[in-house]
Amino acid sequence: MSAKETPPRTLLSSGLLLLVLTMTVAAAPAEEYRLLTVAEDLRWPWCVTKLPDDGFLITEREGRLIHLDAAGDRHVLEGTPDTLFAGQGGYFDVVLHPKFAENRLIYLSYAEGVESANGTAIFRAEFRDGGLRNGKQILRVKDDKTTPQHYGARMLFLADSSLLITTGDGFEHREDAQSRESELGKVLRIYDDGSPAGLLDEEGEPLRLWTLGHRNPQGLAIDGNSGAIYLHEHGPRGGDEINRIEAGNNYGWPAVTHGVDYSGAYVSPFKSAPGFEAPLWTWVPSIAPSGMAWYGGNLFPTWRNSLFVGALVDEEVRRLTLHKGEVVEEEALFTELGSRIRDVRVFQDDIYLLTDSEEGALIRVVPK
Length: 368
Known about the structure:
Blueprint: E1 10-13, E2 16-20, E3 25-26, E4 32-42, E5 45-50, E6 56-60, E7 64-68, E8 74-76, E9 91-96, H1 100-103, E10 105-114, E11 117-128, E12 131-140, E13 155-157, E14 163-166, E15 186-190, E16 209-212, E17 216-222, E18 229-234, E19 240-245, E20 281-283, E21 289-295, E22 306-311, E23 316-323, E24 326-333, E25 341-347, E26 350-355, E27 360-367
Antiparallel strand pairs: 1-2, 2-4, 3-4, 4-27, 5-6, 6-7, 7-8, 9-10, 10-11, 11-12, 13-14, 14-15, 15-16, 17-18, 18-19, 19-20, 21-22, 22-23, 23-24, 25-26, 26-27
């Protein structure tokens, strides 16, 4: 899909809104960009993914999966699962199978259940002829949460077509993040059919468990140079983190944290301890990270080898420059939007942002 640049006015064509934001911003040290609004009036959007034909799939947390086709027409897809739209619950992430061009499979994460007993679930279906076919739930976190909060629900396909899924601690179940018997506060790994692909149990049988000790992880990205996997998660009051994750590692929550409880009380007196992986980066105070992408494209050369992280609280995106696997610089971008950034995506060279509100927007970042 291409966005046509216009004077500072709105054009409606085939249902696609193309609004050019006239402000041009010079990003340190040299990059200059413009922001094009590709779609507006999205109700609490959570995630966007791009289709091979230049259309998009967009989740709306209330329980809608939107197909924005290459002509700009919008369709609410039928055949999607019921969801719990309460608290932080609803529809979350949507990703394409690595062999989507052949099998047409999409994966949707969502809140399943009722307020007193709910959890993160994954739905798989074929996207054909403008609709969903042969849909079924392939994963439901085995623990029931008693709160509609902290779902995690971010997904990432690996090169072997296995799928990583983050799960939150349920807010009131934080001690479960340290339990290997619980799937709360974890990264899970499954094969594309839903079968477990994580660590092995004592009998040598695969679990879904892959890493543990997480609070509410909502960002996953692969470093296109090194293959490292980055995860970010919300801390409590302070202590948001980026971690470089590897199978079997424990990332500490709630035994170690750089944050405190919302009341100001200690969650833990320890920021580090033996047996727990130290974060790659922390934020105190919190930025409320949501969405993350690694950039290695050619449109913005000085942004190569950077992580882009949405900052809900500060209504901006943080760009973290990586060098030899470490963060060496942080830059705030896109503050002129004045909007909470729910998702950040890189599709080939292009950067897309999704703003978080009942009148959310899909925005493309383009060179000046």
